[in-house]
Amino acid sequence: MEPGDVLGNRYKLLKVKGRGGMADVWEAEDLLEPRQVAVKFLRADRGPSDSLDDTEWQAELERMRGRFRREGALLGKLHHQGIPELYDQGNHRSEPYIVMRLVKGKDLHRFLDQYTPTIAVAAAIGFQIADALACAHDLPVVHRDLKPYNLIVDEDGIIILIDFGIAKPLWPGVTDYTPDGSTVGSRGYEAPEQILERQITPKTDLYALGCVLYRLLTGRPPFSGERLRDQHVHDKPVPPTHHVEHIPPELEALTLKLLEKEPDDRPENAHAVKEILRAYAPRARDPAPSPRLEPDPTGLLRTPDSYQLATATAAPQATPVRRRRRDVAFLSKRSFKDLCVQARTEIDTGDPGDAVERLADVLATARRDWGPSDLHVREAYRLAANGMRIAGRYTQALSLYDELVRQSQGSLDPSDVADFLEGTLGEAECRIPFGELLPALQALTTVVAAFPGLAHERAIVLAERCLEVGLELTELGFDEQVAELLPHLSTD
Fold it and tell me: How far is CA 267 from the centre of its chain?
């Protein structure tokens, strides 16, 4: 690529902004809109030290292209002020490129070389990082390479999480572009499960956030020197107050909890982390830090109105979390039934789409008009929950399954029992991608224990789903527990 090259008759390359092992990023002019953009190219050239033969190189190149295409697809799904917005993507001279919002500022590594954050500034930065992670994890997507070099403090003080090149979606059927026997991530910020090549979950990013927060609070990483990876796997970090005495106990406890070796011992999710950090960050109308910071990462929290941006994503709720796209004042029973038929067709073809979305939108209205025990309302909850799950919308599906369990719990009616088991099993299916394996195993145990008394035509389908959940848990290390459970699963 050369300065002046025009991509897709629209993006004129100006200058190289950065080079990495996998991609180059250029600053470019959008010829159709008055803005400058960032254009990321896959680097498909072989380096002089490349020891791969032609066959191995072609396989590696296909993995790189797959990751690159997926990065563009993921950015198109993530909408948050702390994640670069995807504008476009295409191919130039047979190589893919993606066009993103141009982020100007300095990376967090340079920022920390220049400034020593106060507790309030450190909490503000940590809050913004956790907020962006919460957006990604709700999809769910794991970044897998959170580190100061991949965090930009932009000109307005907003923390931007960049480089989703090795990010991993957790929905079913996703291709793994990591070769067997290799790990991805950056030294000093890899979670123990990354180093040991175990299951990656959103809590993997929380460990990296713990490393970043430790550095924000103390000025140094939790581990350094020789045997760095071994330290991350086996050693306990020195408490932050050993380096800086005035760190509040709750922030120290949070940092150490983020750095727990076992994912189950870390905080529940990024939403929980950001709520703790928010309590120590500046509030609206607080004074600016002194000495002055350029850029100022507290500005978004101190003067949110001047940014015209939401300061946080919404945390998952116990009831259906989707905000309805339209207010439904009146809903006819006929149109509701027709919508259920359309949603069922989408689910049967394995491609939940607009009908499932619209059905989820009108559930609250249907429940209000006809009551939660109405057979069509109950069926709509099942359809919407299963559709969201199949589409990989686990957070939304989980809340719908929870509602299905609440509506049917305690009833001896066969249909209610089937709904209770389907809701409980659906909860297990939605928890596995987030790494909540013990709750998933407990849910499967509950379903299998109640299964012999299920006299319902849905038993066969539920049994098949139980077997699928059991297979997933077996592959994730619960082979003995699953082997004890499944012989009790019977549809006779």
Answer: 15
Query: Which pLDDT value is given to residue 156?
Result: 94
Among residues 361, 437, 353, 431, which one has the least CA distance to residue 390? 353
CA distance 73 to 310: 23
Q: What's the whole-number mean pLDDT along residues 321-350?
A: 74
Task: Domain ranges for the chain, please list them.
Answer: 6-101, 105-175+183-306, 333-488
Amino acid 384 reads A
What are the helix (H) ranges across 78-146?
108-114, 119-137
Residue 23's pLDDT band (boundaries 50, 70, 90)? confident
**Is the pLDDT confidence value at 310 over 50?**
no
Amino acid residing at 480: E
Cis peptide before 240 (omega within 30 of 0): no
d(C-alpha 257, C-alpha 189), whole Å: 15
Sign of CA dihedral 339, 340, 344, 347: positive
The domain 6-101 having CATH identifier 1.10.3720.10: the answer here is: no
Size (the chain), residues: 492
Predicted pLDDT of residue 179: 47
Q: Which CATH code fits 105-175+183-306?
A: 1.10.510.10
d(CA 439, CA 255) in angstroms, rounded, equals: 24
Q: Which residue has the higher pLDDT, 122 or 471?
A: 122
Rounded to whole angstroms, what are the CA distances from 332 to 339, 346, 362?
11, 21, 11
d(C-alpha 385, C-alpha 374), whole Å: 17
To the query of whether residue 416 is one of the catalytic residues in this protein, the response is no
485 close to 448: Cβ distance less than 8 angstroms: yes
The CATH number of the domain covering residues in 333-488:
1.25.40
pTM for the model stands at: 0.69
Mean pLDDT for the stretch of residues 75-87: 89
pLDDT (0 to 100) of residue 168: 83
Catalytic site residue from 131, 138, 145, 419: 145
Q: Which of 141, 139, 146 shows the shortest CA–CA distance to 160?
A: 146
For residue range 369-378, what is the model confidence (pLDDT) as tens digits? 888 888 889 9
